[in-house]
């Protein structure tokens, strides 16, 4: 039991360390929002993207919210901009890759589509739809 607890603590702290090793701190946006209902090892998601912070200032579809606001405030995502690929790391640590050929709106739709299929993500998505 002690070994399992130790492994869990090490793996949890390694996830954030892994992200910071993969992302230049000047290109990292840390959300102030944490999902307190998450029973997974993480209470925030990590998104690596080929897009820039400026790109994410665009409004998302027919909302009055920027793409950054949608992901960071409604879906508890930290973002690493100007990366070599597009990927999402879920609360559980699962990595989901997306094509780097997508435009920003296609990428946003793909990310929200994946999140909406997740246990906690489906509730977050329903809440987001209600806010729109």
Verbal overview:
- The chain contains four helices and five strands; from the N terminus they run H-E-E-H-E-E-E-H-H.
- With 132 residues, it is α+β, with helices and mostly antiparallel strands.
- The protein has one domain.
- Strands 1-3-2-4-5 form a five-stranded mixed β-sheet.
- Helix 2 links the parallel strand 2 and strand 3.
- Helix 3 packs across helix 4.
Keywords:
single chain, 132 residues, alpha+beta, globular, disordered N terminus
Number of structural units classed as domains: 1
- Residue share in β-strands: 5-15%
Question: What is the makeup of the main sheet?
Answer: 5 strands, mixed
Morphology call:
globular
What is the averaged pLDDT score? 88
In order across it, which strands form the biggest sheet? Answer: 1-3-2-4-5
What's the total number of strands? 5
- Name the structural class: alpha+beta
Which stretches are low in confidence, meaning pLDDT under 50 for 5 or more residues running? 1-15
C-alpha Rg (nearest Å)? 15 Å
Helix content: 40-55%
Instruction: Give the SSE string.
Output: HEEHEEEHH
| End-to-end separation | 45 Å
Number of helices: 4
